[in-house]
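Q: What residues go here?
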């Protein structure tokens, strides 16, 4: 009988072309050839003058991070725990926690998303309080500023928690690749498009489909010749672009993002987006917090994003900041689509990031410290927090069989 290792080697050999399509530097088709050429044109290796540390006048920094855990109980419910921590200047420390019990037949993806939203809401609450306090110059959040914004329009499908703010991962986004292809009308027919959603569906369903196109989910890249690409409209993701066609330490030009990810093929009609926001605002059960968020969305500033590799051999990081950081405080989120700006506008931020860089395991010193302290370890959840739960409700709480197999 063949070993598992031999069988894995056999399957990799069988799918060799698919693996090479996503990992090698050889472009697969005309779209990838153009992307490879343009990402290299917009990639800027670090020059000596760009690597000096920032002036210590902006050393008043706070970092925020969070952690969460989910445990399935023998009652059929899911127990969700989330916590967040802010560490700031002059010994400042702020923490927040929440825990909920999700009862009923809720699909695991919805439970996972709820846990992520709960954690992110705690992080953002700490961040907002720090900003309003005026106690520092820089606030560092782990995650994307921009990727979350389109999901503010959609409510979580779990009763009682519909108003949690939206969130999505940005590592698999394709905003940079899409910006690099702007203006290449001749290639439009080569980039897989989603079918039109039609006019018979309500606005909410239409916009939801539009956002799914922008998420970079695996369904968007089906039926590709090689590699089953899964970025926006079937494009390679930005992470793939960086891995395959950039080398060494450096950064890309920045992309200023407006309504780029709010709709199909990069932008949704202003009137449709406005109608959706107005529709949500009219909902009778809308919470005051969500109403304030949607009101502010109409006048929110644009977001700038760029990718940076702080040292040769390290992963490329996506960095998001307000458009004013890149010298464009005149741009509003819903007033334009996207545009590229020179990397030089990001150099002050780059210098700061280089000053906080601690190697392959510590891409940012402050975030590393807060991550180490806030991380939820299994021993904490399964012994300390579980004991607290049992003591508080005075019930014999127990995990389900599949969970117990991996803990005890």
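A:
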């Amino acid at each position: 009988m063949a070993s598992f290792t031999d069988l894995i080697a056999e399957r990799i050999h069988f799918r060799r072309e698919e693996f090479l399509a996503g990992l090698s530097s050889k472009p697969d088709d005309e779209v990838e050839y153009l992307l490879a050429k343009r990402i290299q044109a917009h990639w800027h290796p670090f020059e000596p003058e760009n690597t000096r540390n920032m002036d210590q006048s902006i050393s008043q920094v706070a970092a925020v991070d969070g952690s969460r855990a989910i445990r399935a109980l023998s009652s059929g419910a899911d127990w969700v725990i989330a916590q967040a921590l802010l560490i700031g200047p002059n010994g400042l420390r702020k923490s927040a926690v929440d825990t909920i019990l999700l009862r009923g037949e809720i699909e695991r993806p919805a439970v996972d998303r709820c846990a992520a939203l709960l954690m992110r809401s705690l992080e953002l609450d700490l961040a907002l309080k720090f900003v309003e306090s005026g106690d520092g110059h820089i606030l560092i959040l782990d995650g994307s500023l921009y990727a979350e914004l389109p999901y503010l329009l959609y409510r979580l499908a779990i009763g009682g928690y519909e108003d949690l703010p939206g969130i999505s991962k940005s590592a698999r986004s394709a905003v940079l690749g899409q910006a690099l292809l702007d203006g290449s009308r001749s290639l439009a027919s080569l980039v897989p498009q989603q079918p039109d959603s039609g006019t018979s569906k309500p606005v909410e369903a239409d916009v939801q489909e539009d956002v799914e196109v922008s998420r970079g989910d695996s369904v968007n890249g089906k039926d590709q010749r090689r590699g089953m690409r899964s970025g926006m409209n079937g494009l390679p993701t930005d992470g793939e672009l960086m891995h395959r066609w950039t080398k060494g330490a450096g950064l890309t030009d920045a992309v200023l993002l407006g309504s780029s990810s709010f709709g199909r093929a990069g932008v949704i009609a202003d009137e449709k987006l406005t109608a959706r926001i107005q529709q949500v605002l009219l909902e009778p059960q809308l919470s005051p917090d969500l109403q304030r968020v949607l009101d502010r969305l109409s006048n929110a500033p644009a977001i700038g994003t760029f990718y940076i590799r702080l040292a040769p051999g390290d992963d490329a990081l996506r960095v998001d900041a307000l458009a004013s950081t890149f010298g464009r405080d005149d741009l509003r989120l819903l007033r334009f689509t996207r545009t590229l700006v020179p990397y030089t506008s990001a150099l002050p931020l780059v210098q700061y990031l280089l000053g906080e860089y601690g190697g392959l395991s510590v891409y940012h010193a402050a975030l590393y410290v807060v991550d180490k302290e806030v991380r939820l370890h299994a021993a904490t959840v399964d012994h300390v927090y579980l004991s607290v739960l049992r003591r508080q409700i005075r019930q014999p709480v127990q995990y389900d069989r599949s969970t117990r197999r991996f803990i005890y």
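A: Context that may help when evaluating the design: Residues 108-133 form the longest helix (26 residues). The mean pLDDT is 79.
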